[in-house]
């Protein structure tokens, strides 16, 4: 495999200024955000413009999840506008929704509907949970306690754990006492946990039948651990919210095929220090745009 691969990062706190700045400088990005905003008003009843008038980062799940997808789709369309079309994509967590859009498997409205209704449906359980990055392999994390689960495998020695807030805090305390570095994710919720129900009929009913189309490029599903065409139904998208993010296996699948450089699409660079652990490197779209401004 040769060519361009876009990596859509997972959820992080969203600062308003980068999005406002990009909209002022990049007409194509602004156009896509306006389109996303109109859909969010219909599907969620709130506007991104209203959020920009307030101070602070956007971290609550019902808004953070669709905002991340909107931001990433805006960046993707900006790249396409400048002639950069991916030969393959990979996404983490909410980034998997953006990756599905980038392949052409789902349209803009369906991508945002998955994000909106997914965020709302996960919130009651997710707000009781937290996630923490641990400098240990996944197998070692599983041995800590059966009250936490593996949320993401980021590298051979980097794992994200998830569970009820008190259980994650207790496990983190034990790890720190054992001189194992930990880093709580800066979000007031946790997902990718079996504490979420196995099925969510209300989410599935809200999404209904998705109008999936043929994929224009290859994609690796970090929730399935294999190559995919993203012909997912609503139940499969709900599985994505519960399943561990198999990021390291996904990157290794590309590296084994000769791809070692990835374009990161997200509001802030998160992969530049991670990918070298996997024999690869990342170029952040937002960093590149900031340098060019």
From TrEMBL:
Single annotated GO MF: fatty acid synthase activity
Pfam families in the cross-refs: Acyl_transf_1 (PF00698)
UniProt domain Malonyl-CoA:ACP transacylase (MAT): residue ranges: 19-293
Keywords recorded for this protein, A-Z: Acyltransferase, Phosphopantetheine, Phosphoprotein, Transferase
Keyword flag Phosphoprotein: yes
Keyword Lipoprotein listed: no
GO biological process: fatty acid biosynthetic process
Superkingdom to which the source organism belongs: Bacteria
SMART domains for the chain: PKS_AT
Matches recorded under InterPro entries: Ac_transferase_dom_sf, Acyl_transferase_dom, Acyl_Trfase/lysoPLipase, PKS_NRPS_Biosynth_Enz
PANTHER family to which the protein is assigned, alphabetical: FATTY ACID SYNTHASE, SI:DKEY-61P9.11
Protein name, per record: Acyltransferase domain-containing protein
Biological source species: Cupriavidus oxalaticus
């Amino acid at each position: 495999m040769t060519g361009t691969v876009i990596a859509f990062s997972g959820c992080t706190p969203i600062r308003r200024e980068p999005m406002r700045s990009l909209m002022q400088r990049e007409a194509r990005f602004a156009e896509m955000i306006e389109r996303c905003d109109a859909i969010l008003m219909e599907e969620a009843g709130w506007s991104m413009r209203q959020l920009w008038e307030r101070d602070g980062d956007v971290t609550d799940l019902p808004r953070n999840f669709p905002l991340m997808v909107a931001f990433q789709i805006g960046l993707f369309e900006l790249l396409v506008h400048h002639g950069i079309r991916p030969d393959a994509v990979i996404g983490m967590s909410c980034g998997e929704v953006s990756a599905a859009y980038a392949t052409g498997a789902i349209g803009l409205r369906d991508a945002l509907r998955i994000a909106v209704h997914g965020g709302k449906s996960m919130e009651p359980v997710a707000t009781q949970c937290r996630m923490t990055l641990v400098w240990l392999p996944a197998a070692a994390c599983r041995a800590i306690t059966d009250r936490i689960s593996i949320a993401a495998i980021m590298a051979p020695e980097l794992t994200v754990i998830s569970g009820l807030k008190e259980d994650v805090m207790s496990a983190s305390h034990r790890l720190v006492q054992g001189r194992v570095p930990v880093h709580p994710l800066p979000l007031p919720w946790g997902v990718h946990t079996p504490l979420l129900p196995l099925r969510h009929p209300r989410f599935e009913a809200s999404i209904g039948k998705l109008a999936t189309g043929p994929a224009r490029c290859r994609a690796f599903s970090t929730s399935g651990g294999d190559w995919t065409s993203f012909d997912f139904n609503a139940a499969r998208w709900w599985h994505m919210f519960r399943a561990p993010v198999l990021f390291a296996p996904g990157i290794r699948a590309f590296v084994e095929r000769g791809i070692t450089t990835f374009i990161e699409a997200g509001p802030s660079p998160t992969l530049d220090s991670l990918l070298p652990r996997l024999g690869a490197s990342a170029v952040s779209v937002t960093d590149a745009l900031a340098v060019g401004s």
